Amino acid sequence: MIDRGGDAALDPGTARTRLPALMAVPPSFPNFRKDSDIMISDTHLSSVQLDIIREELEEQLFWRTRQLADLEAAVNDDAVETSAKSGLLADIVSVERSTAVVRKALKSVAELTYGRCDGCGSAIPYERLKARPLACFCMDCQRRHENG
Ligand SMILES: [Zn+2]
Asked: What span, in angstroms and rounded, lies between the C-alpha atoms of 39 and 42?
């Protein structure tokens, strides 16, 4: 008596049909080789690290765009009091500004110029970028910047 269920799990044919789904790579960086987590010559970050940063930035862009749409809807809403609208307009300006910063970061990820310190041009460590994807300065320059 053959146990069909047990055989199916070990059947190499079944494993092969499952493989394409496991190997699917998001079409984010068409210029990158997909075979391994290689280091990119123009940046200190690997393609996998850049992908993680890009996803985080895209998520931030998504939420800011949504927030902007909500604010604009509120400004155009006749039910919202005029006195409240100046505050909303100020919010729109600030969200637009931060959206531009996120877009700029995403552009630099695409151009592989992301992760350089604006102050000294050195490579900002991945751990710092992961925690703060919009960081423009290395730790030293940030400290100098904050102290004036
Ligand atoms: Zn620096």
From this structure: 9
Distance 145 CA to ligand 1 centre (A): 10
pTM of the predicted model as reported, rounded to 2 decimal places? 0.67
Taking the centre of ligand 1 as the mean of its atom positions, its distance from the CA of residue 60, in whole angstroms, is 24
Per residue in 32-61, pLDDT tens?
444 444 444 567 899 999 999 999 999 999
Q: Are 77 and 88 in contact (CB under 8 A)?
A: no
Distances (CA, A) of 118 to 7, 18, 73, 106, 142: 59, 46, 36, 16, 10
The number of C-alpha atoms within 13 Å of 93 and in the hemisphere containing its C-beta is 6
Dump pLDDT digits (tens) for 54-86: 999 999 999 999 999 999 999 999 999 999 999
What spacing in Å lies between the alpha carbon of 70 and ligand 1's midpoint?
Answer: 37
In order of their start, the domains of the chain are: 38-146 (1.20.120.910)
In sequence order, the 6+-apart residues with CB closer than 8 A to the CB of 126 are: 44, 45, 49, 115
